């Protein structure tokens, strides 16, 4: 096996980085959830860090230091489950796992989950840059090569389509709120209101506007670039490659990358796969 392919292993047919050990992935089903656990679900590069910071700010406004945002449940080794067990207070647990790999105890308890969706074209471009800049991921020859990998679901966490459709299919088995990156960009206060009502937290207009200010792209990027960035920030919990996360934070960057043919092929795939999806009505495509 080449050093490159050593960076990825396949579990349940899905590519994972070595950050997720096969032993941990195998043992996830023994995970004991709690009724008040909140899952923060996303396909990679959909705005996970943004949403996590919104949640942190939202809880801190009402009950400072009462919630912990953990690293993604699938990152780590066997000790991970013990580490999560030792957390007192409410846990917000991020994950990129497909629905069928989520520990069944979350489902049995009907825990709440928030799933953030981003347009697949911008997601692909963002993931392309993440691969390029991240030494823990295989080297990518070109945008063209990466595009084919993305379209065929051969990137970390597999197919964008399968991920979303799997979570949509089971949307009523847990209590799931779907959010949209583009809608958040357009009207963040509206999305924050949606989140707070889903979580049963009352916020004043002033509190909402404070949260929006603190979680703007510029504010979050500057905070991460500061030498002494807040050690409690969710960015620290979620990633070791903090500076790779805040690239552009825009909608429509894909237009700089997609050739007309690539655009047509993805449109065809989208139509074929998402035609019967209810979520597709809300995805800005
Ligand atoms: P780009 O690469 O297009 O800039 P994730 O957190 O799931 O890894 O997603 C990362 C993407 O979300 C990056 O997209 C990043 O810039 C964007 N992002 C992070 N914080 C954001 C914010 N506060 N507002 C808008 N986009 C943000």
From TrEMBL:
> Which SUPFAM superfamilies does this chain map to?
P-loop containing nucleoside triphosphate hydrolases
Which terms does the UniProt entry file under GO BP?
A: sulfation
Coiled-coil spans are none
The answer to whether the entry has keyword Transferase is yes
Gene Ontology cellular-component annotations: cytoplasm
**Source superkingdom:** Eukaryota
Entry EC no(s):
2.8.2.-
- Which GO terms of the molecular function aspect are on file? sulfotransferase activity
Family per similarity comment: Belongs to the sulfotransferase 1 family.
Q: What is this protein called?
A: Sulfotransferase
Q: Which organism is it from?
A: Xenopus tropicalis
């Amino acid at each position: 096996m080449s050093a490159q392919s050593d960076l990825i292993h396949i579990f349940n047919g899905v590519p994972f980085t070595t950050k997720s050990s096969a032993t941990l992935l195998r043992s996830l089903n023994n995970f004991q959830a709690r009724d008040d656990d909140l899952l923060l679900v996303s396909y990679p590069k959909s705005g996970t860090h943004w949403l996590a910071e919104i949640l942190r700010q939202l809880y801190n406004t009402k009950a400072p230091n009462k919630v912990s945002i953990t690293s993604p449940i699938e990152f780590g080794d066997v000790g991970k489950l013990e580490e999560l067990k030792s957390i007192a207070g409410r846990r917000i647990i991020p994950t990129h796992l497909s629905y069928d790999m989520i520990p069944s105890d979350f489902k049995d308890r009907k825990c709440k989950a928030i799933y953030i969706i981003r347009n697949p074209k911008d997601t692909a471009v963002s993931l392309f840059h993440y691969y390029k800049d991240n030494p823990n991921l295989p080297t990518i020859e070109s945008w063209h090569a990466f595009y084919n990998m993305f379209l065929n679901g051969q990137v970390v966490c597999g197919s964008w389509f399968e991920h979303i459709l799997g979570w949509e299919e089971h949307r009523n088995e847990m209590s799931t709120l779907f959010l949209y990156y583009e809608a958040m960009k357009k009207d963040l206060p509206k999305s924050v209101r949606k989140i707070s009502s889903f979580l049963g937290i009352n916020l004043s207009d002033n509190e909402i506007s404070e949260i929006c200010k603190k979680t703007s792209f510029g504010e979050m990027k500057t905070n991460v670039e500061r030498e002494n960035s807040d050690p409690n920030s969710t960015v620290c919990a979620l990633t070791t490659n903090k500076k790779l996360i805040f690239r552009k934070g825009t909608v429509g960057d894909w237009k700089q990358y997609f050739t007309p043919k690539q655009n047509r092929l993805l449109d065809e795939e989208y139509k074929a796969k998402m035609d019967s999806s209810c979520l597709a009505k809300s995805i800005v495509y």
